[in-house]
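I wish you would study the pair of lines that follows with an eye to the fold:

===
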Amino acid sequence: MAGALAMAAALPSLAGAAVTCAACYGLGALLLARFDAPLRPLERFPLAFLLGAAGLHLAIFSAMALHVAYRPVLILLLLGLIGGGIVADRSRTAGGWAEYRSLESLAPEPLALEPLVQITCGVIFGCYTIFYFINAWAPESSPDGSAYHLELVGRYVRAHGFEPVTTNMYAGLSEGVEILFAPAFAIGRHSAATLVHFFFTVILGLLIYAYGCRIGKPRVGAAAAILTYVSPIVGITGSSAYVDVAAAAVVFSVFYWLEIWDGSRDSRLLVPLGLMAGYGYAVKYTVGVMLLYALVFVAWRARRLKPVLAVAACASVMILPWMIKDWVYLHNPIAPFGNALFRNPNLFPLPEQEWTQWLRSYDLANKWTLPLQVTIYGDKTQGVIGVAFLALPLALLALRFRAGRRLLVPGLVMLAVYFANIATRFLIPCLPFFSLSLALALESAGPLLALLVVMQAFLSWPMVVSQSSARYGWHLAHFPIKAALRLVPEDRFLRETSPGFELARMVEQYVPRGERVFLLNGIPEAYTSREVLVGFQSSLGLTLQDMLATTWSEDSQPTRMLLFRFPGRSLRRVRLLQTARLPAPQQWSVHEVRFLNGGMELPRRPEWRLRAFPDPWNVQLAFDNSGATRWRSWEAASPGMYIDVDFGREQQIDEVRLETSPDASGVQVELQAMERGRWVPLAGRPDQRKITPQGSLGRAAAFEFNARGIHYLLLQDGDYSADLVQDDPGEWGVSVVARRPGGILYEVRP
């Protein structure tokens, strides 16, 4: 009885995923009926699903934007689209298959696979599908899936729509797949969302095979589908709440629609082409390059501007909503990137630059080892695509075929953007093109191609990968059928498989609703409804992180003073101008600016107008009398940065003190005054002195946390300062709330 009840608890995740995926196909079927696309039965299903996913994502976006995304509303939307798809399919089949017989001139008739090939491919595809399905059905435990992907989905579902999320840079990314997770999540929680992505994985395999049939080479299609589908990185990513395999399916569908349009030159087909190309941007920024490819291809083949404009207009329907959302909430239409171009109070430019630089390297000392990393080892790049792809140079032999040339160009386009993030999973959008090209090149060497496919299937089997050199990369390692059926309790499974899950549950249990908790490193935030602030994810988080660093790092503490002295003058406006140019990550930081006359400091007044560049939003940190805070440029120090003070009236001043830290020792500061509308030098080079911070910096940091409404702090084992705080919480102005393996939750006392 208990087992039956446990298994019944697993059914909502299946239901949530099933109705979401069925709604995608239903809407796609309705749209295809409008375009009268020349599709064969084999390719109709995957293309309809992907086109419907694009349309459904837009419908859910609208519901989120209007804050009407309640669970009944989402369910009714899905059921309505399913019903519409059923009607569309009945209308189509009622007319028989004459439409397909009339399309024989547009695409070669697919040839039947030999029985042995059918059985072999069917067994491989079936075994891997079952393995992927069980892992997707099990409780979601992937690093990013259980963190920001589903954390943001859960937040939107609870709020019944979008809300400004300025403390998590990932909220600025386009979320074209995550928004499809929302109705599934509302029905069946985390696993339902993961199962939706799993279905995209199946769709990708079907679409690759369908393309092989379209060009009259079903063996090529079957081989390429297996090469991609069984890839270890495809398996683990596609059975997690990620978006990379969905992105690959969308990329390949854009290419597919280009081929269909090029074969018929039906202008109506520019609509699904444009919608899918725009949806690529909505799924993942890097996939947006396929829109450029589509525009160039259409311009080249049509030799007219009107078709290009039609594709661009349809694509904009998918792209603009996300850009507008980011502009409204984050003041940056391409957040979390481009913060030096679109300056805003939510994300700093220098951390963005350091983050993107790391994504391009992953601390890989020698980029020439990258091919071996992504095919054999995977310990640095987080997984492998499979040993078979070491044979990829042979794909160049496909250049002798028209189809091969058509495949390699978009594959190389996607490979070019891969170098913006060299994690192995960012190669997934390239795999359909390269797999088909490789299979096409080796088609005439049938036994060699068969050996390559079987080898890839065997060496990619999760249990084999776990014993190979790729075992340290991200890959599937278990067949958690008991966890999928909930015969093993979800919490127990997650405690064993998801590092940090116990900490997330501790936050949920001990942090009151409505409170926020600060962390230096993330946890599985999708498993708590409390707002979690992670240091590197926002300007606020970095400011809080910098306060903690000031308490333990001597390089960050206010131990240097720049002292400007000059004959007393009556001044209204004074500016500190930074004139040095320093390489990143060196930046300008100011703990405190003090104005004196006759040895007495001028008291700060409300009428003082403070300005700063490049961070005008936090300039008050240089005028708050706190040793734990400092204003920072958050960009590499360069000439023209300034702090500007307008006193509101004339003030007698003969001395300016600038308190700073050792990590800003390379900057050069000039003191200026405004006279007759012009800035003029007020003093020469400053004297430098060493000073000692006053009071307890730990208590000062605690006060600042409280002032910003942060009353809880979670420090994990290995975090900087974790041992210091644990040894003497009182000195840091905190008290222990709860302990779990891996971390301690503190309350920050006022």
